[in-house]
Amino acid sequence: MDTAAHQASLLGNYAAPAVAFERGQGSRITDVEGRDYLDFSTGIAVTCIGHSHPKWIARIREQAAKLVHCTNLYAIPEQARLADRIVAKAGPGRMFFCNSGTEANEALVKLARLHGRRKADGAEGRIAKIVSAEGDFHGRTYGSMSATHGEKIRNGFAPLCPGFAFAKFNDLDSFAAAIDDETAAVLIEPIQGENGIRETSDDFLRGLRKLCDERDVLLMLDEVQTGMGRTGSFFAYERSGIKADAIALAKGLGGGFPIGATWVREESAPLFTPGSHGATFGGNPLACAAAHAVLDVIEDEALVASTAARGAALKVRLEQLVEKHHRHLREARGRGFLLALVTHDTLPPADLVKALLEAGLVTVPAGGNAARLLPPLNVTDEEIDEALGILDVTLTNLP
Ligand SMILES: *Cc1c(COP(=O)(O)O)cnc(C)c1O
Q1: CA-atom Rg of the chain in angstroms
Q2: Are the C-beta atoms of 71 and 79 separated by less than 8 Å?
Q3: Which residues make Cβ contacts (< 8 Å) with residue 254, sequence separation at least 6?
Q4: Ligand 1, atom 15: nearest CA belongs to which residue?
Q5: Which one-letter DSSP state was computed for residue 66?
Q6: What is the three-class DSSP state of 217?
Q7: How far is the centre of ligand 1, averaged over its atoms, from the C-alpha of 331 (Å)?
């Protein structure tokens, strides 16, 4: 269909789309012309329990009939219970709820500034710097964008916020050099998503934790894409054995309903006082109901453990695919169901994603020549076989 013709009244901030989707069920999604696809994009790691899970629908329906919205000036029991559930996974701390990943990171930026002011005995702005990694993506609003390295994201929007700096990805010496007397916090992705599924090493994370402790700098992790069990542990940092000072969460949290969250470790939680932050819609009853349903399904169906095992098995098969199609593919990357096929320069990842779409498999391009495979955590083994079949045939038929 000519989707572009239907977009005349939309800002041109997204590239012209190839298809329009109308309905989804589990791992499948159907376009307006009635064609079925396997959805290995999950709306970029969002619909983590698949489309239209019956428990998710029932919970939203029930809550919508009861109470959709209530201001945070009054207690929201669903929100408090959701906080308890995430704290049980992240460790002793406190939660703030918002509506997106970039907002969850904005709360981290504010936390960093408050921590810096405490370090500077109340002097504002002196210790304020936030160090992120080159290649990180933290969002599109001003604070998160200022912590984002890519020219493609920043270009045209100067002046950005002051007090941000960058060190080399996965390079402890570079971080040690970038963290100085004016540094309040480090904000990084444990695995870079938009930049093509690049993992920090366990040694790097452990070294960074030690460095931050020595210099009284907060270690803040952006788990917006990697969280919610996507990598085979509830948070991606868990594999390294470290603890974070603060975590941003969003994408998969609501299973498609917009909700973001910021977890702050108990020691730093008192930095936020009444009036210091807020969000009208943040953590409203309906959004929290959606997140409860997602957590229920993840727990009831033991999806974190199964994602670890089945993701590892899928990666082995992707590596076999790389071997077979070495003409087009360079490597398979990632862990759990946060995976990517990396192409040679002769095959732009967008071309691979387009060919796969035409063959009935929805994937997502990323930086660094990567095509991301992000199936729902409850994808069936048969659907994985089917996706691998489509990948094999498509790669065989590419010129
Ligand atoms: C998607 C993403 C964001 C931004 O989330 P939005 O909901 O689009 O604001 C931030 N950080 C990471 C790591 C992401 O993948």
Answers
A1: 21
A2: no
A3: 46, 287, 290, 291, 294
A4: 225
A5: H
A6: coil
A7: 25
Per-residue model confidence (pLDDT) at position 364: 97
∠ CA 95-60-91, rounded to 5° = 20
pTM over 0.90: yes
Whether residue 340 contacts residue 366, with contact meaning beta carbons closer than 8 Å, is answered with: yes
Q: Is 76 left (phi over 0), alpha (psi -120 to 50) or beta?
A: beta
Q: Residues near 398 by Cβ (< 8 Å), separated by ≥ 6?
A: 328, 347, 352, 355
Q: What residues have CB less than 8 Å from 26, skipping those under 6 apart?
A: 50, 51, 52, 53, 376, 378
Chain centroid, CA 176 distance in Å:
26
Residues in the chain, total: 399
Indicate whether 272 pLDDT > 70: yes
Closest CA to 336 of 318, 310, 317: 310
> Closest ligand 1 atom, CA of 144?
10
Confidence of residue 6 (pLDDT cuts 50, 70, 90): confident
Whether 139 is in the pocket of ligand 1, judged by its Cβ within 6 Å, is: yes
**pLDDT digit string, tens, across residues 170-184:** 999 999 999 999 999
Contact in structure between 265 and 92 (CB atoms under 8 Å): yes
Cα 214 to its chain centre, rounded Å, is 29
